[in-house]
Amino acid sequence: MKTLSYHHFIFLLAGLLFASAVNAQTAYMHGSTYEERGHSLIDQMLQTQPVDNGNIKYVSPFYFARLWRDCEKEKAIEKLTEMYQYQLDHVEAFYNSGSDMDFFAHATMHGYMLTKEKMPDSLRGKIKAFMKIGKYTRDNGTLNMKLMHQTSGLLCAEEWPDFTDADGKTSVQLKEFLHDRIVHTLKQFITHNCPEADAFTYLGTNLQYIRMLAEFSKNEEIRKSALSAYHHIIAQLLLPWNQGLYCANPPRCKGWKNLYTGNLSTGVQIVQLTWLFYGSPDERIILREAANRDNFGCFNFWLAYERTVKPLPFLQALNNSKSYPYDFKALRIDSKHYYCRYTYQSPNYGLSTQTVEAFPEKLKDFQYTYAFKETKNIHLVWQSDNSEASVFSVCHDNPERPQIYQTHSNKLGYGENPYHRVFGYEKSAIGVYNVAENYMNIPHFYQMYVPFSRKGIKKRMVKKINGLQWILCHTGSMMFAFATPEEWTFEVSGGKYDIKAHDVLILKDKKRRRGSWVLETTEITEQYKDARGDMKAELENFANDIREKVKFNCSGDYETSETPGISYTNLQGNTLELTFFSPETAYSGQYKLNGNPVKLNTEYISQSKYMKQKANSNVLLFHTPEGTKTWKLE
User: Fold this and answer.
1) What is the DSSP code string of 327-348?
2) Cα dihedral 187→189→192→196 (10° resolution)
3) pTM of this prediction?
């Protein structure tokens, strides 16, 4: 186990005590190895009683877990039989269930392949009949939706030679249609990264069907490709994982609460998913037990059961050898665009920023694409004693579905405005925005809003320092300071950007389309620490340091140019510069560090002192305490 800092230890301990005091029934999973953690997750699932009349997506994993463990088998068989009979009696409702069809297909086929030897013939027949009402050659939907039903259809074709789906596709036709598509996608995951890598909900959704193929496909090429993709995705989780925190810029995130990826998080799947593979310093994590909602069991069970496929032990050893701080660059490549990410991992927090860029031939109208619907350009997360408040991000109003020119505002904390540019380096980040006057027109999507948690931030003060109104925040484990040159106020409750238990910074000028901001973060180092642990005194020390060292300037044409810019010298003496460029303009050195243009990372899927992989390559290098390990994924 790692040696924890004093603050880290105190707040982990306080968090566990707090959680216990609030809810005596809080369930913890524990374990020092992948096997122990997976076993513990399933133990907790067996202790959870699923609701009656639950659906296949959320509840069937609890019954498949019972079959797998030979626990309450008769009840599990009875409930699964009822579930599938209901679907067979309500086929039209199934077809009108949206993405549930895809989740149902995966959960059913994965559970069937895992436990079919423990089922009676009657249940096996019912499941086959249910799978026959699916349509498996559909090529639409999001990545995880499409692959869930396509991979399930492939296994149906392999399992039952006489299988025919609802479109009349036979086993032979399904295998012929699906084989090359699936293999191509799996290989792309390795050389380009999974487009939904770091998606706080959907990465696990992808990983579950990948494991299903690696465990159960009868086709050797598919099985090997799936195993390589499985190992690649787990390897890519290594760098964003910070001792129980997950810090990254998600390509897909379901709103403000879905950004809560802290050490006590109970509402975001990726935290528990990564914990399964890498663990945490105190070797335990809270289990979210709701058995008929978006719960961890329904997804992470598919990664937790022990069979043939499991993570490579050297990856957990490499994670345990990491020292803090460290930084890394990462890249996700999609069909029309790519995400260039930079993350700084400190002992008690992580700060991640990104740039979303279109390929040159796709720049026109890039602001009207799906790329911005669910992503986040900045993510700060810290160790906390509160499970749902240890996050900070700068948000902008943005359309719910830009790809269809929809004029409804997105949910709070959901998605990114394409005219918001962010540049981060180590402990600091800066941003500039300049929203085009014709962007979506009605309503006008240009307002910046910045939520400040009343729970995760233990002490907050506002100070005017060298002309800027700084908001200084103490979380108990670290401190950060935020400033914008525009006049602002706090929207406490009742407004458009009202988030429960948060004060939300908004601009006083509701029609302002351009602006900027700066963010400074720090550990509670000796120079800031107060002997009595007085947070106000520590914030005062932080403020004095900012007063003495920080410099901020706007460009001379800040109010008039289409390309306003700012310059910020941080506490370490590094100068970050950002000149705005529109989403239809290619990056060409608009970020500068100490006067030098910054090269966007378009070369490496991941690059750090611990691991490295070039884009379009299937070779990964791991720098371990014993030396460099080369790993080629076929």
Assistant:
1) EEEEEEE-SSEEEEEEEEEETT
2) 160
3) 0.93
